[in-house]
Design goal:
Layout lengths: L14 H17 L18 H24 L6 H10 L3
Length: 92
């Protein structure tokens, strides 16, 4: 089960789906015997391409982070902050 951040138990206002997720988690709590065990639940986020859309949004907004850091930290030379921004934002 892989849900967007902030939606660990399901979609907002989907009480039935949230109860299902919580019941599955509680059932696992009764059966798991080792700390850190990971179990894959059958529930899926209704929009299958949500991860790609989120990543696409971050990439589209990367220039904002780059420009903000450039304005606030650029000192007229190829300093660390500028190089780091170029590497992270792939704008080199």
């Amino acid at each position: 089960m892989n849900y967007p951040l902030g939606n660990a138990t399901g979609r907002p206002h989907d009480a039935a789906g949230q109860r299902r997720v919580l019941r599955n988690a509680l059932a696992l709590a009764e059966t798991v015997r080792q700390p850190g065990a990971i179990a894959e639940l059958a529930d899926r986020w209704p929009e299958p391409d949500w991860e790609e859309a989120t990543i696409r949004g971050y990439r589209e907004e990367a220039h904002i982070v780059y420009e903000t850091r450039l304005r606030s930290e650029y000192d007229g030379a190829e300093n660390y902050a500028l190089r780091e921004c170029r590497e992270v934002c792939s704008l080199a």
